[in-house]
Amino acid sequence: MNQKGLILFCSLFLLSGCWDQSLLSETKLISAGGIDYENDGKVISTVAVPQAIAAESGEENVANQIFSTSGFTARQSRLKLDREVSERLDASKNLVLVFGEKTAKKDIYLLLDVFYRDPKSSLNAKLAITKGKASDVISTKFEETTSSIGVGEYLRDIIRSAEESATVPEENIQSICPLLFDPGQDFALPYLVPRKDVVDVEGIALFSGHKMAGTITGPDAVIYVLLTGEKSTISMATTKKILKGQKENILNYASIKIKKNKRDFKVNVSSDGKISAHIDLKTKVVVTEYPSDKLGDEKVLKKLEKNLSRVMTKDATKIIKQLQEMNSDPFGVGRKVMAFHYPTWKKIKWSEEYPKINFTASVDVEIIGHGIIE
Amino acid sequence: MTFFKKPKKLIKENDQNKVSDTSCELESNVYEPPQTIEDLLKKVREPFSSTEDLRTHWVELASDKRKIALLFIDSIVDKQIIQQQILNPLFEMSKEIDTISFEKVISLDLKKQTDFTKSQELLLLSNTLIFTDDPSCYYSVVTPEKVDRDFTEPENEKVIRGSHEGFIENISSNVALIRKRLKSPKLLVKYFKLGKETHTVVAMIYVENLANPSHVKEVEKRLTSIEADAVMTPGNVEESIEDKPFSPFPQMLSTERPDRVAANLMEGRIALVYDSSPTVNVVPVDFFVFYQSPDDYNTRWILGSFFRFIRLFSFFIAISLPSFYIAIVSFHFEVIPSALVLLMKSSLENIPYPPLFEAMLMELTIELIREASVRLHTKIGSTIAIVGGLVIGDSIVKAGLVSNLMIIVVAVTAIAAYIVPSNEMSGAIRLLRFPLMLAAATLGFLGIVFCFMILFFHLCRLYSFGTPYFAPIAPFHFSDLKDTFFRMPFWKMNTRPKNIRPIKESQDNQTRKWDTDE
After folding, report:
1. CB–CB of A23 and B343 under 8 A?
2. Pick from A13, A29, A31: which is nearest to B438 by CB?
3. Residue B497 covered by a domain
């Protein structure tokens, strides 16, 4: 028995070999990936591989190597890439996955499938849609990327900072997976626009099913994030035009920072089968900029609250209208209908019904602070 | 003075050389003592053949010219004691008394012996034997030579606060050190003689109303069953009586600190004190005993708990950090945070061999440095530290043989391994990480998990003198956790560890009675 055990024990080490070993030193780590369709339907994969150029003092420079190939599927193009690159390519530390706008307007899942199937793929990589081609974003040398960090880190960081200021919702490969297969809810991804030296997070790209349907840009994106029910992020702030015709144009504006956001989301189905939805936001804000001042006065404060509520309600209604036009349902109205009014859900075809429902929103702003000056 | 035949001078002669001794013996034939004494002496001397430090000293009483023979091994007796406790009284006595009644006059340690087979052993235990003309009996006086060193603090078990006394190489002093701390009439000392040739004295010490009788019996049984010619060191005894000789874990606590022993005795454990060794063993023990240090109980309990926690944490670091590192860089680098991954990769990039080899190389280097510095004089030791630490550490990285990170990992591991306040446990841990590294290099995290499983199986199955070794984790005793991962305040420790089944389980520990009595 003992002898047998010994033989088994030894064979564990002698016979197993290195079948699944993947040495860190013999791998090329992908930090950012971009996927586009070519005109003939082929898939172009572009990856950025940061190479640290070791320096004596511990400071390291990152050189980005860009590789690009095309294949019939996402996986095939990756396999081709592997053959091009000296060491083994590994996507487990991938930070960002970018799709070109044209590509995203086709079925996005067909390209994402490969990421869900691989147990080692990095599911917390950020997803983004870019204006133009993804390969351009990955391979362009932006100002910041050349200094110290790789393009993957750069893109991840701009998306993350956009998330913190609530201009884009927080999503990654993992988090959109259930939404991709949910008929009652859609999702939105950050929308990038490459400029000469930088990449802008311009707003959000809305999806309808597996396909991109449109964008919401600028300050409206903050209202969108508020409508999703996001409680609060580090710097969830926006500037609104609340007045008209002041002496100086700047006096027309007020900037606020949202401290607390409470969403009340109701979906009703009337007896005759009419679906209506209503989002009621109760936000507590701090005024960070109000050149007109005199906020110490209760009346002025109340008036500002009222104006802010009015403007933001108007914006919210506008956004909802846009969403209905795009037939994108990122708030999950359909999910609510499915959950609480299933007989109705069974009767209707949601993609046809959603643009027609009565969907309203109201924002109630309460100022809880106005900075350290009276 | 005239009654005695130059006693002072004789002593002097004894000191001078051995030739005079033999001449003294030859001389004895001239005195023609009764034949019986001669025969007796011859018989007693016989097993020692012709060793020259076994000496006979003749005393002739002035009163009746009777002869008395003193027999002793002069290398292990204190001649001052012989002079003061035997020769001087004899001289005083012989003025008046005809029949010598030794029992009344001479030293406290005097014992009348009738068993002549014991004489040999008594001689070896620093006794002086006194033979009179009565051939049926003889007398023995313990006259040990005291060449003890001071009770200095043991080098390998230093504490910041607490007693700085340590055991020494003398068994009676060691027992005294324990007695000094436990002035209880219930503290029992039992002596055993081990080794047919060496006659090493071992004292078994326990508190009678605490230590479980079955443990006492078991220890006694195992000790008496040792039938070796030589039992020289505590290590010999340890290996003879421990439960699982093939286990990497020490099953007896070895310590040189009397306060540690006393505290363990009060928990109902048994201490084994060895002659000529400053090491005292404590049985039965569990895993966590090795992580207790007297310092814990002298610092505030919150701090003590913190230290304890750090120590147990170091167990995991010391065992698994190198293997964890190997597993990560060769199997699971996706667990590295992305901010760190590039850094690690660039440090590893140009290392010419696999991580396992790299780790083994560094671990063995550390062990080399350790082994070299243990044996060396302190002054040369620091040279080794500089050469080993700085030169090897720095230049091995510059030469590109080992990555920066590996140096950090190995250094942290080495420090963690030495945090354990027991040298044996630290050794066990250092040894155990090698199979773990091998498993990690073969199977990644899975291999580490396998190894830890086997390790914990083993720990759960291990017994020390019939008590579970991994208690209070397995079997689980919630109340006993108070002195394992944490060190609860003194006034909370009201029960003794359950796994050693002390007779009296609860302690009378109402130390904060003033606080509750209002």
Report:
1. no
2. A13
3. no
Write the secondary structure of B408-434 as one string of H (helix), E (strand) and C (coil).
Answer: HHHHHHHHHHCCCCCHHHHHHHHHHHH
Place of tokens 């530290």: B385
The interface residues of chain A toward chain B in range 178-237, judged by CB-CB distance below 8 A, are: none
Paired strand residues for A362: A280
Is B148 inside a domain boundary?
no
Name the fold adopted by A219-374.
GMP Synthetase; Chain A, domain 3 (3.30.300)
The pLDDT tens digits of the residues spanning A223-272 come to: 898 898 887 777 778 888 877 777 788 888 888 888 888 999 999 998 88
Token reading at B169: 């190489």
pLDDT of residue A34: 92
Assembly ipTM: 0.80
Tens of pLDDT, residue by residue over A337-350, are 999 999 889 988 98
State whether B207 and B60 are in the same domain: no
Structure tokens at B134: 């009565």
Express as a percent the part of chain A with pLDDT over 90. 29
Residues B244 and B134 in one domain: no
Q: What is the pLDDT of residues A96-146, one digit of tens each?
A: 999 999 999 988 999 999 899 888 888 889 999 999 899 888 888 777 665
B440 and B321 in a common domain: yes
Task: Please tell me chain A's helix, strand, coil percentages from 3-state DSSP, rounded to the nearest 5.
Answer: 35, 30, 30
| B chain contacts of residue A50, beta-carbon cutoff 8 Å | 342
- For A91, the closest chain B residue by CA position comes to B334
Distance between CA atoms of A88 and B358, rounded to whole angstroms? 22
User: Domain containing B13: what range?
Assistant: 7-142
